[in-house]
Amino acid sequence: MQTSEAVVKYLRTIEFEYGYSPETVRAYRSDLYLFLDFLLTTKQVMIRDLNADIMRGWLWQQQEEGNSSTTIARKIATLKSFGSWLEAQDLLPFNPAETLQTPKRTQKLPRVLAVEQVRHILNTAKQRAETARVNGGPDARAIRDWVMLELIYATGIRLSETTLLPLSHVNLRERTIRVIGKGNKERVIPFGKPAAEALDKYIRVARPLLTNPEKPHSELFLGNRGGKLPNSHLYRLVTKYIGDLLGAEPAGPHTLRHSVATHMLDYGAELRVVQEFLGHDSIASTQVYTHISKQRLAQGYLLAHPRAKKPGSDPATTRTKEQAGAVDPTSDPVRFKPKPGELKKYKDADE
After folding, report:
1. Backbone angles phi and psi of 57, in degrees to 5
2. In angstroms, what CA-CA distances link 216 with 167, 207, 220, 222?
3. Pair 253, 235: CB distance under 8 Å
4. What is the pTM of this model?
5. Tens of each residue's pLDDT in the chain, 351 residues
6. Is 156:336 a contact under the CB 8 Å cutoff?
7. What gap in Å lies between CA 57 and CA 90, rounded to an integer?
8. Cα–Cα dist 25/39, whole Å
């Protein structure tokens, strides 16, 4: 059998039998098609030709083309998954990618927004939603965009979890959403009053205006013509609102996810609660946010403690909390504040 034929069967399997997310399938498809192109140049296109040396040759080529260690690590994960499937299907006696070593990743702390910056973004989007008009009526697209921003910050859900969220998975009475995340794993996430009010307005006012009766869709958020909302629209939307705040840094929906996780820890949430909230399999993925909170603690100490300042320094010339990136402890991040006892319920369930 040719490797290309096996790749097609593998991709169908992970999409329709294993239930991998569309983003994961897309990434694996991209990696494997590049690998197939490499095999064509080496004229080793049969399954029986696959071995670790060929795979290392392709990975070296990818590295020489400037791919980061994180990208190389993902490509190795793709090869290992594909190789494991080949072994399970008895197409090869063993997984040829098993011995590939994943490069160490340089951990980079995610950029986060201050609470007041998020508040400004959400208020700006809300104001536009309330004032924009189309043919004398409400602008359904502006309302939708505002509500998506509110919901992402309220729940920390990922880009694809937002665009694929079914309307039936929203419970306004309980103030929860049911999300199918990575690995087809389900979690229930609470949200606060601002997000509940925004969702109620979108569902009552805006969504009916976006719905195409001839081609109804089950997703909560609809595209401009009533179809599926493209992921690219949500990415551009978030970038438009927060791009100026972070300069040249990446400013997609994950920035809001990073921000809510950090803010929850800043305001006393336990790490296990945040892990459950974000849908992380490993708590190690969540611990990166503790480093950010420690940085904020140090900045707050330097700003506020009388013996932290250098002798002779003038408090009037000290940087403001916003400049230092510290969170104002008197502000109330109500947008991700659930009903009393809600997070404790999830903590108890996790334990």
Report:
1. -60, -40
2. 12, 11, 11, 10
3. yes
4. 0.61
5. 899 999 999 999 999 988 888 889 999 999 999 999 999 988 888 999 899 889 998 998 888 888 888 889 999 999 999 999 999 999 999 999 998 888 766 656 667 888 888 999 999 999 999 999 999 999 999 999 999 999 999 999 989 999 999 999 999 999 999 998 887 888 999 999 999 999 999 999 999 999 999 898 999 999 999 999 999 999 899 988 887 666 555 568 888 988 888 888 888 888 888 888 888 877 777 777 766 565 555 555 555 555 555 544 443 334 333 333 433 333 344 444 444 454 444 334 333
6. yes
7. 24
8. 21
- The DSSP bridge partners found for residue 189 are 177
Neighbours of 198 (CB within 10 A): 24
Residue given tokens 């924009």 in the structure block: 132
User: Where are the chain's structural domains?
Assistant: 3-88, 115-288
CATH 1.10.150 assigned to 3-88: yes
Q: What is the Cα–Cα distance from 83 to 100, expressed in whole angstroms?
A: 11
Strands 137-138, 170-171: pairing kind: unpaired
Pick the closest to residue 117 from 269, 290, 273, 242 (CA basis).
Answer: 242
Of 337, 289, 333, 334, the C-alpha closest to 190 is: 337
Q: How many CB atoms lie within 10 A of CB 166?
A: 14
Residue 267, Cβ density class (10 Å: 0-12 exposed, 13-18 middle, ≥19 buried): middle
Spatial contact of 56 and 35, defined as CB atoms under 8 Å apart:
no
What CATH topology corresponds to 115-288? hpI Integrase; Chain A (1.10.443)
Look-up: residue for tokens 């013996």?
Answer: 307
**Structure tokens of 339?**
């009903």
Which residues are designated catalytic?
Answer: 158, 182, 254, 257, 280, 289
Range list of H helices, 65-171? 69-88, 115-131, 140-155, 159-163
Q: Which tokens in the block code for residue 305?
A: 């403690």
